[in-house]
Design brief:
Shape: globular
Radius of gyration: 19 Å
Order of helices and strands: EHEEHEHEHEHEEHEH
Number of domains: 1
Number of strands: 9
Length: 270
């Protein structure tokens, strides 16, 4: 399959090609990270399991062409919560944790964009979005909510690349910062790698490649290391697995990504 188009980037750490143009709201101590209302929590469970999960199942299987490799590894984690780290290649990546973690509930640690549309904040919160605070005042409640959701036996999903590069077939560099959560909680970590395959049969009508999600064996924080070293080791294990899968599996390049030519960068700075 020839790439549909070529996208040029300048900064693999910070460039974002989602084109959502959402003005992020401030998230501080006043954000409802945890709702104490029994009615609200019952309604949230109903919305998640009775409405969202069935819709996500249909979209994932038919439109995205989702298939799994090594999903049986999650049986080892039936009795505990865990952290799920994935590469970020679609807006619809937000669906993957719900599909992957089922029947556990998946909470997605996200940037504030996800809760910045007033008429959708309640819905996305019910669906499990935990926004990263923009104000220091919100950090205590944020960390408390991450801890609580993990202790409840849920799954916490993180996309450490942070920015969306649609259909990108490589793995972009990311820091160890987000690995402080599982390190502090001594929680298992599973890498979730999306690759793209050519669709066959009637599914070729969708034109876009199908998604294959490959899961790693669980990684665990190394208690013999300092917290910072343990975080870095987890990051390196997850990153290494992601790179290995992206290079060894069928990975159709639907959109090509190239660095901006040096000549153009030089002319822009003049």
């Amino acid at each position: 399959m020839e790439p549909k188009r070529t996208v040029y980037y300048t900064d693999p750490l910070n460039d974002d090609f989602a084109h959502t143009n959402i003005r992020a709201k401030d998230v501080g101590a006043d954000f409802p990270f945890i709702h104490k209302s029994v009615l609200w929590n019952v309604l949230a469970q109903c919305v998640y399991y009775c409405i969202a999960v069935p819709i996500v199942f249909v979209i994932s299987k038919i439109y995205l062409g989702l298939k799994y490799e090594n999903r049986q590894v999650l049986r080892k984690l039936r009795g505990t919560g865990y952290f799920l780290y994935g590469n970020h290649t679609r807006m619809l990546d937000a669906f993957l944790p719900a599909m992957t973690a089922f029947p556990k509930k998946a909470y997605v640690v996200s940037n504030p964009d996800a809760v910045s549309l007033p008429f959708l904040q309640t819905l996305v919160t019910m669906l499990g979005v935990i926004p990263i605070p923009t104000k220091f005042s919100g950090m205590r409640q944020f960390l408390s909510s991450v801890n609580q959701r993990y202790q409840e036996g849920n799954v916490l999903a993180i996309f450490p690349e942070a920015h969306i590069w649609p259909f990108y077939t490589g793995i972009r560099p990311f820091s160890a910062t987000s690995f402080r959560y599982p390190e502090k909680l001594n929680a298992p970590v599973v890498a979730m790698v999306t690759t793209y395959r050519k669709r066959r049969g009637l599914f070729r009508l969708f034109r876009r490649p199908g998604m294959t999600v490959t899961l790693s064996e669980p990684f665990y924080p190394d208690a013999a290391l300092s917290p910072r070293e343990a975080q870095q080791k987890l990051r390196d294990q997850v990153y290494g697995f992601m790179v290995s899968v992206s290079q060894s599996h069928e990975n159709v390049e639907y959109i090509a990504y190239e660095p901006v030519p040096e000549a153009e960068m030089g002319s822009d700075s003049l």
